[in-house]
Amino acid sequence: MVILDYHLDGFTKNAMNGLQTLDKIKKYNSDIPVVMLSSQDSIDIAVNCMHHRAYDYVVKSETSFMRLQKIITSIFSYKKMEKELNWYMERM
After folding, report:
1. Which phi and psi (to 5°) does residue 8 adopt?
2. Domain assignments of the chain as residue spans, ordered by start
3. pLDDT exceeds 90 at position 64
């Protein structure tokens, strides 16, 4: 699992931004869940991240840590169920 900031390109001139990094991660392994984190509360940005196959989009706020905890828990639960389902499917 990766938690990735939407704006990565602010520190170095030629750095990739968050969406470019997300695309590279998904190209490397599409099963890696990536949660995008940003200070921008924009539905357009959130939808764009989801189109790039982000698992979720979290706006930085006072409650973002609790939201991240819930998302991480759900990712691990989903991956566990996925693994169990694959195990059962291989047995059939």
Report:
1. -110, -15
2. 2-91
3. yes
Alpha carbon distances (Å) from 75 to 13, 56, 58: 33, 10, 14
Q: Band of the pLDDT at 11, cuts 50, 70, 90?
A: low
Q: Which CATH superfamily is domain 2-91 in?
A: Response regulator (3.40.50.2300)
CA–CA distances in Å: residue 41 to residues 3, 19, 56, 58, 60: 17, 16, 13, 9, 8
Taking only the tens place, the pLDDT of each residue in 40-52 is 899 999 999 999 9
CA distances from 20 to 7, 8, 49, 79 (A): 10, 10, 10, 25
Q: What is the CA radius of gyration of the chain?
A: 15
Question: Please, which residues have CB within 8 angstroms of residue 19's CB and are 6 or more apart in sequence?
Answer: 6, 48, 49, 52
